[in-house]
Amino acid sequence: MGRWQSQACNLETGNSEGKGILLLSHQRLALFSRRINLGNSTRNLQIDDFQLNTDIRAASREQYDQHLKQREATLEAIKRQRLERQEEEEKAAIMKMRKEAIHIATGIKKYKPQVIKPSDMPLTQAQTPKFSDRFRARLHSQ
């Protein structure tokens, strides 16, 4: 603690000589305090336009939020269209299956009558097959 502060504490405790010490400490403070000399300024004292970084950040964040909302809305619309298209395809498939399940009788087909003509070839003469080896052995030996 500084010397003048300890003297101020003595004043608070009820010391009679503390009053004089307190005045001295204020005088010392007045000597050491510096005055700000403004002088005659050539600058305008009007405030120029300025933007705080928080304002700029808030505006860019608002644009970003709008972009996100727009993107989310488009994705939701695409998803909804996809679901509607899928439901329509399912309904069409069910209708097709139901239509195919109903049996519709068809008439008998009519073809041209076939004309049978006799063959010009002579009948086949039957021959005994040669399965046995004994007949072949005789033929080869001759």
UniProtKB/TrEMBL annotation:
Keyword Repressor attached: no
Annotated Pfam families: TPX2 (PF06886)
Record's GO cellular component terms: cytoskeleton
Domain of life: Eukaryota
Chief location bin: cytoplasm
Coiled-coil annotated spans: 61-100
Sequence ranges assigned to domain TPX2 C-terminal in this UniProt record: 50-124
Region spans: Disordered: 120-142
Localization in the cell: Cytoplasm, Cytoskeleton
InterPro entries in the cross-refs: TPX2_C
Record keywords: Coiled coil, Cytoplasm, Cytoskeleton
Protein family according to the UniProt entry: Belongs to the TPX2 family.
Name used for this protein in its record: Targeting protein for Xklp2
Source organism: Elysia marginata
